[in-house]
Amino acid sequence: MSPNLLLLAILVPAAAGVLALLMRGRAGAVSGPWALLATAANLGLGIFLFDKQADLNLPWAGFGLQFVLRLYQFSGFIVLATACFGLLVALYSIRFMAGRANRNQFYGWMLLSLAMVNGAVLANHLVVLLFFWEGLLGTLFAMIAIGRPGAWRTATKAFIIIGISDVCMMLGMALAGWQAHTLIISDIHLPLTTSVCTAAFVLLMIGAISKGGSMPFHSWIPDAAVDAPLPFMAFLPASLEKLLGIYWLARISLDLFELTPDAWVSPLMMIVGAATILLAVSMALVQKDYKRLLAYHAISQVGYMVLGIGTAVPLGIVGGLFHMLNNAIYKSGLFLTGGAVEHATGTTDLKQLGGLGRRMPVTFACFFILAASISGVPWTNGFFSKELIYDGALARHWIFYAAALLGSVLTAASFLKLGHAAYLGKPAENSDVKFDQVREAPPSMLLPIVILAAACLVFGLGNALPIDHLIAPAFAGTHFAAAEHGAAEHFAGWPESSMLVLMTCLALAAAIINHLLGAKRAGSGLGAVDHIHHAPGLAQIYDAAGKRYFDPYDIGMALAKVASRILWLIDRLIDGVVAGLTSGTARGAGYAVSAAHTGSYALYVVWSILGAAAVAAYMLMH
Amino acid sequence: MLDLFILAPLACLILINLPPVGSRRLALPLAMVLAGVQAIAVLCLPYMPRLDGPLTSFFNFGLQITPLGRMLLLAVGLVAFVSLLVGQASLGQDRRLWQFASMMLLAITGMNGAVLVSDLFSLYVFMEVLAVCSFILIAFNRDPLALEGAFKYVILSAVASVLMLGSLSLMLLVAGSTGFAALKAALAAGSASPLLKLAMAGFVCGLFIKGGLAPFHAWLPGAYSSAPAAVSVLLAGVGTKVSGLYALLRLAMDVLPPSAALGQAVMVVGAFSMVVGAVAALVQKDIKRLLAYSSISQMGYVVLAAGCFLADAGSADWRLVAAGELAMAGAIFHLFNHSVFKSLLFVNSAAVERQAGTTDMQLLGGLGSRMPVTGATSVIAALSTAGVPPLAGFWSKLVIILALWQSGMQAYALLAVAVSVATLGYLLLMQRRVFFGRTAPNLQGVREGSEGYVVAELILATVTVLVGLAFPLLMHLGSFLLPANLNL
Amino acid sequence: MTPQAALIFGTFAVGAVLVLIVGFYSLLSTRNLIRSIIALEVLTKSVTLLIILAGYTTAQQALAQSLAITLIVIEVAVMVVGVGLVLRIHSQTGSIDTNTVENIKG
């Protein structure tokens, strides 16, 4: 297989995307099927490239920058996964985006994002990776900005947040490249012993987790959930960005640096992960909008992945990676159900929904499976990945395990609330939704949801397939493989520790009980967690969070405003001095010279003679 | 076959003016064709077979083509073509158009001849041919100010001739011949003699007057600003450049001995010109006068670089010698670029003058929207003059500044950078006052210039952009624009 | 050089320089445009003299003569143009005072 085929993985979606961008106006109707075709081609390419090895090395810009791509098990797996999601979202979007004015832009930017992700995943040179990583930033901005009017503010927010973390990542890359004396990723193997290496790791980690949507780089995601077109949410934040971000996190933990439990970045990652889980799921709990709730969960689930990889034990890392895959599946599925609801009823405000389960049975059934997966119900894929993470966390310290478990409880509670409020119960009164006109989602939208729900079950029941074939090969060549329990350990199958399973079941039971009690007290599914929301102490925090006091972006922007005002004043001062002084002198000199030219040719001749005399004198003297 | 460059324009001139045969209506088109053919011929010169023309075989003229000369022939062809276009557009209905074309042809003869000869006196002769044509062309429309400008040019040109010829006689005293080779030998042998030092200083100062370097420059603003539009284009583009600057560069490379003192003196004059030109341009109210001072300033760069070459050429350190050669390359390239962008600026001012009726910046404003091509090309030319990448001016200035820095003359390099900033300043000021801003009420009806102006602007703008973009390539091809004896 | 040649050389050299000085003085101090043209003529003559002198000293009289003749021709052309300009200035302004050519300032 020629290495040049790797270029196709980037060029095919990129070219398709550019063409889609050109299909303006009426031609937009073609862009949907075109995107479907392109993503199918991309999937075909992904399948072809999977499980092969190839290295591509082309001269690129000057200065010794090479365009280096590397296909190996891990990168091939991610390319295949992103291709699958691309196809599913394209299929879904044909119906969802039908009739919208700028749908060709949606498909165009979507295809370009696929190209960027492929490039970033296949990249084996830090600068190439950075190039595609940043390209993804641009397409992200575009995909958000074409949503509701005013969405560009959210797009700008996302751009700034991810941009800042990307700058950190650039610094990290510079440090790593400097320490390793090479920019080729597969050649970098640094120990986490010196402070420079650790700093590089932390900076790169910031870039990776920010891409995945972890705290504190998360605050654009809930806003984007509301402002951007919904398939975008299923596409980028739910699946592609997680895949890419956690892929990179795994690379830096396994390949570029040797993450061991005694490095202090490991507890750091675990704390960040645990905090993300808990804080985000607490916010999710009290959301009253379908999409915002899902968005906060997206943030929360990244916490699991970061926690898993941060444990620095093989169990946890495998769990984290498996969770990355699973989350992508069920999160995008959940977003797609939200889109189906929005398509059928015109809203995602939970206060106006209810009882949709009867009218949209397939959607509800898939939602049930997906929600069960995200909650970690036994035999779903979420269950297995969470168990692995619990195992790894417990191997480090019980507190992380407790945090993860609590997170699961709250996750389950919030999904019980969501499901009850949207699908069960009675349709809400005083709602704008015409419930008798609600019908099941069209097949082209249902199919991706069904596929994803089915995948949850397949990857759950047959978890040997993904774990042994997709994830474990990621360990090949890392410092873990060298350890005794490398490839020999078998991660798939029912979890070893039955106690953990028991704890999980207890946790789920607790969530169910909590929900039933709360629902009874509040009188509806929607109010099932109101007792937590309005609990003393928590109520104030939730209020403040609702007013965006805790949004790091807003805090940062306020500080930036103050700083910029101060700098502006300093600038005025400098400007006055410099501009006044220099332009004044220049002008003065100009007038003097100008006045010297009196118009009399005799004067000019005198100047010439004097000048010649001066030159001659100088020459005669030297 | 090099004589064709001299004979062809001369033949056309005679043809136009012979009463029975010559047709006055064909005068200008014929001149344009000649200029265009010259520009193209120069580009094809390496690929043409050598033919011995009548002059070389009969008169034993000794014509020689150097890379510098080739580049100037290209500039002459290009700028003459453009100037004729503008002349036709501005003088269109004048019955004396054929006289204009005739004078232009003679000027072209003079310039080509100056560039091709290898003898100092012949150089002087052709320079005077050009000068006489310039006098007549400046005063062509008999405007009182134009007559004044031409008259001052006559006076100072004569003073320059006196200086040059006096120095020539001193050199003749020592060398016994006026050919470049003989002079080079004699100067190298006797360079310590006070007589020869005086001679070199005198000749160089004469060239300074012709080229318009400060403090020998004072005729230049008057002549450029009062001349008719097409003539300003020719003068600013190639007239003064061939007379003063070409001669200086040629002498620096082929005749003058490496001399630190002369080099320093030349550099001081160059630096002085740069500063005086830029500073005076900042306060000008008339577009053409501003552009004239700008020319003085840009020629300061060329002379500064030439001085650096002279100062470094005799050094024992090969790195300094290489820096000097780099400076000379930069000077030559800047000369060419200047021909292109300065002509472009003058064509723009010609268009503005024609359409708006004035070149007083205080009366103009907001023409950019009404004259889009002129405005856009003016921006390109301004940026190229100021040395903004990726236009041509950037590369030539960069080379000069780098060469100065490498020669250890960091102060001059920094001065050059500062003057570049000032250049950007006054050019943008001009741009703003003329093209941006609100349109004055009496200018509401102004439209874009006629095709002559537009075509001329587009040609020159294209050349400057292409040269700028292609320069890195040209450097690798070790090319056309840089003298062959440099190894970069 | 033989003493006789040196004497001739010296005399003519000094003479040429004197003529040069006279020419410059006249150019700078006159208020009459025609006189300034004449001053230019005088200057050019002094330089012609220098050239002939150089030819004499180096025994290259043929070369010097041809140079001098060419120079005279060129100078005539320049002067004709100069006088033409003065004539036209006079026909437009009625004066040949130097202040008619002091209008371009700054």
Task: Describe the protein's architecture and organization.
The complex is a heterotrimer of chains A (622), B (488) and C (106). Chain A is mostly helical and 622 residues long. Helix content of chain A is 73%, strand content 3%. Chain A has helices spanning 5-22, 28-49, 73-96, 103-122, 126-145, 151-180, 195-212, 220-227, 230-256, 265-285, 290-310, 314-345, 356-359, 361-375, 381-396, 398-423, 443-461, 464-471, 479-482, 498-522, 530-533, 538-546, 552-596, 601-621, and strands at residues 54-59, 66-71, 190-191, 257-258. In chain A, strands 1-2 form a two-stranded antiparallel sheet. In chain A, strand 1 (54-59) and strand 2 form a beta hairpin. In chain A, helix 14 (361-375) packs parallel to helix 17 (443-461). Chain A is globular, with a radius of gyration of 29 Å. Mean pLDDT of chain A is 83; it is low at 482-488. In chain B, 76% of the residues lie in helices and 0% in strands. Chain C starts with a helix and ends in a 13-residue tail after the last helix. Chain C has three helices and no strands. The B-C interface holds B 121, 125, 128, 131-132, 135-136, 139, 142, 144-145, 147-152, 154-155, 157-159, 161-162, 165-166, 168-170, 172-173, 176-178, 221-222, 225-226, 284-285, 289 and C 20, 23, 27, 33, 36, 40, 43-44, 46-48, 50-51, 53-55, 57-58, 60, 63-64, 67, 70-71, 74-75, 77-78, 81-82, 85-86, 88-89, 92-93, 100-104, 106.
